[in-house]
Write the C-alpha cells for this entry.
Amino acid sequence: MKSVYRITMAIKNMGVCNPFRNFRLMTVCLVLLSTACKQKSNGQSVSEAQENSTKEESTLYQSSVFTEPSGFTGGIEGPAVDANGILYVVNFEKQGTIGQVDAVGNASLFVTLPEGSIGNGIRFNSAGDMFIADYTMHNVLKVDMDTKEISVYAHNDELNQPNDIAIMDNDIIFASDPDWANSKGQIWRVEEGTFTLLEGDMGTTNGIEVSPDNKTLYVNESVQRNIWAYDLSPEGEISNKRLLTKFEDFGMDGMRTDADGNLYVTRHGKGTVAKISTTTGEILEEIPLTGKKASNIAFGGEEGTQAFITLQDNGNVETFTVESPGRAFQMIKERKE
C-alpha cells in the first residue's frame, strides 16, 4: 500500500503538463490498489475459513443434553429418525409408549402400544414403516406412520425377548435375542410372519447393526463384551464369524454405523460412546456423556451428523455431532433422491 501512496503523490506533483504519462501512472495506480484490496480480501477469507474449521472441530464429540431429564422412563431405548427428521424413542413418560422428539428437543407422545407390549429397538424400512422390537410379547411390531395403526409383523414364542433390531436396504430385519438370566443369546432373521434362527448358544446378544454396503452384520454380547462380525448375503444369511473387538470392562448396548462404516457403540455403565474402526477394531474416539447408562444411539439432524443417545439413568436423550452421517440417514436420503 505504501508504493500505491508514492505513485499517487507523484501524479499529484506532476500536475497536468503531460496528460499521456499522467494517464499511464493512474492506470498503474488503480491496478496496484485493486491487487492490494484483493490480497487483503483473500487474507480475510482464508482467516475466516480457518476460524470456522477450528470452531467446527472443537464442537465435534461434545455431548450435551437434548431432551428434558426424566421425560422418559428408565426403559428409554430406540432410538430412530424417520425421513422427516423426527426422532422416535420408546417409553415416553410410561412403559409401553413411543415418544417423538422434534428438532429442538421437545418430546411428546406418538403412540401407545397394545396392552402388554413394551418396545426396545426401533427401525424404519424403505416404505417408511416403523418396526419395534416388542420384548415382552415376543413380537416385532409394525406401525403405519400415516394412520398410526399397529400390527404384529412377526411373532415367535421361542424367543427369549427380541431386544434390538437392524435392517438391510432390502428390508430384511435382524433381531438380537438375549437371555439375561443365563448370560446367553441368539440372532434371528425377521421377515413378515417369520422368525428364522441364524445362530443360537451365543453370549448375551444385544446391539445389532448392518454395514453401509449390506455385506456385514455386527452383533455384540453385553456380558462377554465381545463384538462379532459376520459376512452377510443379500438373502440375509450369515457366515464367517470373527471377533471384531473385545472390551475389558463395562457393558455394551446399542450400535450404529456411519456412512464411512465406522461403528458407534454405547458403553452402558461407563457413560461413553466408542467409535470403532470396523477394519482394525481400533477405538478411534471415546465420547463422554453426562449420564452413565447409555442404552442406544441413532443419527439425524440436517446433515445426518447429529448423534442421539438414550440415557437410562437420566431418562433423556443427549446429543453430539460427528464428521460423517449415519448409515440409516444416508439410506433415507438416497431413497428420497
Summary: The longest helix spans residues 19-59.
